[in-house]
């Protein structure tokens, strides 16, 4: 299966999860330290737009990466952004392009398309779980997605960038052979698999 298909499935799952968010949920805490559901959806939405721009050759424009409050239209705006990035990733020749991702490499490094889409895939696999946990919904991705995500999760640098304000991932937590597959992905990206809003 292609990285685009893995990503498409993860994004579709995230759309389904986000569809259950209500206005009353927007102020709920999330597994992302200091972020409410509204903050998380704003982040997820702008990242879709940023990656779509990168796929189309305009990722260096910092304006497309600027986070903006979504207000009461958060679910609708998120869904629209998801459709935008999936359309961009499905364009002919996209895998032959380089992606400029200033939030990942501010000095202008251009990433190969498969690697960049892999970044996007892992982000939305985990953020779908973030949203689900925040609103008390159940979310367990397909084992195929978990298997594809594991090497990508291990490749995410676990350094001082994870301790900065607004970091999408926190420092990794210990895992062992007894840790279930998706819980392992969550833990190495700094998530506590048993997290709840009251924790």
UniProtKB/TrEMBL annotation:
Residues 8-132 form the Mycothiol-dependent maleylpyruvate isomerase metal-binding domain. This is TIGR03086 family metal-binding protein. NCBIfam families: maleylpyruvate isomerase family mycothiol-dependent enzyme, TIGR03086 family metal-binding protein. InterPro entries: CHP03086, DinB/YfiT-like, Maleyloyr_isom, MDMPI_metal-binding. Coiled coil: none annotated. Pfam families: MDMPI_N (PF11716).
């Amino acid at each position: 299966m292609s990285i685009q298909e893995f990503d498409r499935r993860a994004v579709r799952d995230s759309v389904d999860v986000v569809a259950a968010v209500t206005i009353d949920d927007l102020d709920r805490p999330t597994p992302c330290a200091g972020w409410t559901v509204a903050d998380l959806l704003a982040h997820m939405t702008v990242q879709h737009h940023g990656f779509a721009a990168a796929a189309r050759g305009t990722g260096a424009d910092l304006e497309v990466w600027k986070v903006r409050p979504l207000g009461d239209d958060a679910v609708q705006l998120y869904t629209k952004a998801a459709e935008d990035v999936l359309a961009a990733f499905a364009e002919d020749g996209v895998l032959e392009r380089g992606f400029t991702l200033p939030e990942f490499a501010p000095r202008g490094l251009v990433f190969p398309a498969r690697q960049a889409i892999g970044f996007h895939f892992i982000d939305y696999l985990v953020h779908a779980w973030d949203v689900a946990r925040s609103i008390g919904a159940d979310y367990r991705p397909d084992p195929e997605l978990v298997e594809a995500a594991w090497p990508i999760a291990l490749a995410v640098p676990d350094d001082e960038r994870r301790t900065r304000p607004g970091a999408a991932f926190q420092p990794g937590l210990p895992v062992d052979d007894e840790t279930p597959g998706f819980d392992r992905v969550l833990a190495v990206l700094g998530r506590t698999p048993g997290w709840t809003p009251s924790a």
